[in-house]
């Protein structure tokens, strides 16, 4: 992470719960440089770090921040705090409703992650609520959410809902009067991204987080670390906060059972994703990884001679992938990944190449909500969606390629 502009160095500095004396001094020294404050605020927002930026700037160098910037940051901070308090209240209401009706559920991401890793709801931006249940409880949970004012959006036909439950892992429920959203999950990853961390196991191993006298069920630490690495890999590690969350959990590594974690990573197909997350957290945020874990992850020495070269090659490929992610994370101009870039990432972070290929085939062929919203077909014609989706995708990306080539041609002339 050499040759970074000072604004990005500030982001790396503040993306943590606590700054020690050395980091506080570094942040103050950076703030004394010629800072493009508008760029810094935009980058902090893009990487989901505005609350931490405000919290640490006001502690380390409030006199060095222009007053309009400080006022804007304070306004964003207070708004986010109020939003998260409201969301946490809604979450408690929903979890108690599900529990009272015999549905076991846990909450993750959102304000729960802020409370779990930062100990303060105000220190993380959260736009919605994420609740995990078992797939067999979906219909009952759907009815209960509707009684609480949350409607599934979009509304699906029976065939569409059956397909969505089979191939995907979540759907939105929206409360329009209160402008709040619940993402109801029955899995942690869609079938286009093979990762077999079973929801029933997650619920059985879940822990209780206490907030304002209420017990909220959430991921155990080992499951949380695996989930954070998987979810970030699925999204191509497109936010600095994704790495910061992994690093923050590693700083409380005394609660992690590494033997259990490594075994669970192997069982779920998440070993490569875990390796990527650990390397990124170590490289960018200097997170400490126990020596015995590093040795276990670099297991090329411990396998039999016939597989040693292959394993070493795999880990060297992952190392190069981590370095590429580090370079791309803080580029000034970042674009959403193309389907080809996503596929290449999947090839590198999924355990088997055939899983990435199978995921690509499903992504091309299996209908999604966007297909159903574009064309409405009666139930007996549902199989036609499997033909319409690849045609729609071809038209979409062919148009994008043509548009980009036209822009390149105009720039060249």
Give an overview of the whole structure.
The strands form two sheets. Strands 1-2-5-4-3 form a five-stranded mixed sheet. Strands 6-7 form a two-stranded antiparallel sheet. The chain is built from 19 helices and seven strands. The longest helix has 34 residues. About 3% of the residues have low confidence. Helix 4 crosses helix 5 and helix 13 packs across helix 15. By secondary structure, the chain is of the alpha+beta class. Among the domains are: 120 residues, 2-Layer Sandwich (Beta Polymerase, domain 2), CATH 3.30.460; 153 residues, no CATH class.
Helix/strand structural class: alpha+beta
Overall shape: it is globular
What kind of sheet is the major sheet?
5 strands, mixed
What low-confidence regions span 5 or more consecutive residues with pLDDT below 50?
A: 300-310
Can you describe this structure in just a few lines?
With 413 residues, the protein is of the alpha+beta class. The protein is built from 19 helices and seven strands.
